[in-house]
Amino acid sequence: MNTRRLVMAGLATLLAPMLARAHPHIFAEARLEIVSDDKGEIGELRNVWRFDELFSASVVLDFDKNSNATLDPDELKEVGQTVLDSLAEYNYYTSISDNGKSVKVSKPDSITVDYKDNQLLMIFAVKPAETMPLKGKLSFGVYDPTMYTAMDFPTDEDLSVVGDTIEACDHQVVRPDPDEVLAENKDTLTDAFWSDPTGTDMSKLFATRIEITC
C-alpha cells in the first residue's frame, strides 16, 4: 500500500482491509468546541486534530513533492483538500444526537492543515445540517465509525462549550467503559460489527462524547 493509499485508508477508511477495521492503526489527539449562536442554537463544532508521528511522517513522504522533508503551503493545502473530499462519506467523524435523533453535518468550507513538531495538525469547523435549538438532551462526539483511526480526547477540557447560551446548560463529558459497553450490548455486538463496524454503526457506543442538557 503506497502512502497516498494509506492517507485515504487512515482518514477516510476507504481502502482498509475489512477485518482490520476493528483495530486502530492511526492515532490522533482531538479537541472539540461546541459553539452556540445568538439565536440559542448550535452554531458550529470546532475541531482540532493532532496525528501521531508515524502517520504524519507517511503523509509528508507522499505529499512532499519538492523533497525538502517538510510540507510547504501548497502541499499542506493539497492534504487538506484530500481529507475534505474523503471524509464527507463519514460525516467528518462527527456524531451528533438531538434528543435521540442523529444529525448530519454540512461539508466544511475547508480544512486547514499544518505540520509542527513532526505531527500533522488539522483545524476545521462543521455545522449541523439542520437547525438545533438548545433544548432537551444533546450529545456530541468525534470518532471513526470503522475504528481504523483512534480519536482520543486527552482531558475532559478538550471537550468544551463556547457561548453564553450553551454555557448556561448542564454539560458533562462521558467516557464509556469498554467492558461495560460489551456487557450491556452483548446481544447486539455481533461478528458483523467486528468485521465491518461501518455497517452496524455500533462503534459510537465506545466513543467519548459531551452531553448537554438544557
Automatic annotation (TrEMBL):
Keyword set includes Signal: yes
Keyword Signal belongs to the record: yes
What are the entry keywords? Signal
Q: Which residues form the signal peptide?
A: 1-22
Q: Which Pfam families does the entry mention?
A: DUF1007
By what name is this protein known?
Answer: DUF1007 family protein
